[in-house]
Amino acid sequence: MKIHGYIGILIIVFVKVTLIFQVQPFISWTTPTAWTGYILLVDAIIYRLKGQSLICHRPKKFLTLLPLSIVLWVIFELYNLHLVNWEYINLPGNMALRLFGYCWSFATIIPAIVLTSELLETLHLFDKARMKAVHVTRNALYFWIVIGLVFLIAPLLFRQSIAVYLFGLVWVGFILVLDPLNKIVGRPSLFGDLENGKLDTILSLMVAGYVCGLFWEFWNYWAHTKWIYTFPITQNIKYFEMPVVGFLGFGPFALELFGMYHFSVFLKRKAFREEIRLSEKVQNRYP
Predict the structure, then answer these.
(1) What is the pTM of this model?
(2) Angle ∠(54,59,63) on CA atoms, nearest 5
C-alpha cells in the first residue's frame, strides 16, 4: 500500500488515542483530522486494489475537490441559518482558527464521498445491479426541475418553526434540479443511468453516503468541538448525535453532491470556453 495509506492509519489511531485520553487541543480538531486520515487511507486502498487512485493519478482533480467541497457545503449552511437543524458547540474563540476549522472540515466532505463510492465500485459490489431501461423525455426532465425548485424554495417561505420540519425537501431538491440539468447538457447523470438500466453508480453513491454518515456521526459524538442536531423529530431515537430520521438523508446527500459536482464542472468548462472565445475575438480585433 502507498505510504499515505499508512499515514492515514496513524492519523486515525492518533485521533482515537487523543479522544480516549481527552487530550487538548487535539479533541477540538477531531472531525477534520479523522477525515483527513480516512481520505488518505481509502485512496491508498483503492490504489492497492486497481493500481491507480484519485490522489496518485488525478491530483489536480483531488485538489479541485477541496475548495469545491467548501463552497457546496456552505450552501447547506446558508439553508441552516433559516431551518436551524444543527448548531456547532465548543468552537475556538479565535475567529481565524474557527474559520480555518470550518474550511478544513468542509473540504473533506466531497473527497470522502467520492473516494468511498470509488472504493465500492472498485470492489464491483453493484456491477450486476440493473433494471429495465426507462425512457426519459425532455419534458419529464423539465418537470422534475420544476418540482426540485419548489422543494428548494418552499422551506424559505415558511417561518422557522415550520421550516425546521422541511429539511427533507432540501436534501432531495438539488437532486431533482441538477441531475436533469446534467442530463440535458450532456454531463454524467442519474437519469442517464436509468435510461441505460444501470444502477451501479446510484447504489455505490447511496451506500457511500451511509458509510460516511456512520463515520461522521461516530467521530463527531466523541469530539469536543462538534455539531448537535436541533430539529424536533425523533430526538429520543438517535444514532450518536443524529436523530434516526435525519440519518436517512445521507444517501440522498451523496446523490446530491454527485449532481452538484458535475454541474459545477459544466459551469467551469463553459466559463473557460467563453474566456477562450473572448480572447480569440480580441486577438482578431487587435492582431
Answers:
(1) 0.93
(2) 105
Q: What does the alpha-carbon distance between residue 194 and residue 191 come to, in Å, rounded to a whole number?
A: 5
Question: Domain residue spans in the chain?
Answer: 3-285
Q: How far apart are CA 118 and CA 204, in angstroms?
A: 8
**Parallel/antiparallel/unpaired status of strands 226-229 and 86-89:** antiparallel
Which amino acid, residue 44?
A
* Cell numbers describing residue 64: 479541485
Percent helix, percent strand, percent coil in the chain, to nearest 5: 75, 5, 20
Residue 217 grid cell: 456521526
Q: How far apart are CA 227 and CA 90, in angstroms?
A: 9
- Indicate whether 281 pLDDT > 70: no
Per-residue pLDDT tens over the stretch 216-246? 999 999 999 999 998 877 778 888 888 888 8
Written as nine digits, the cell of 87 is: 448548531
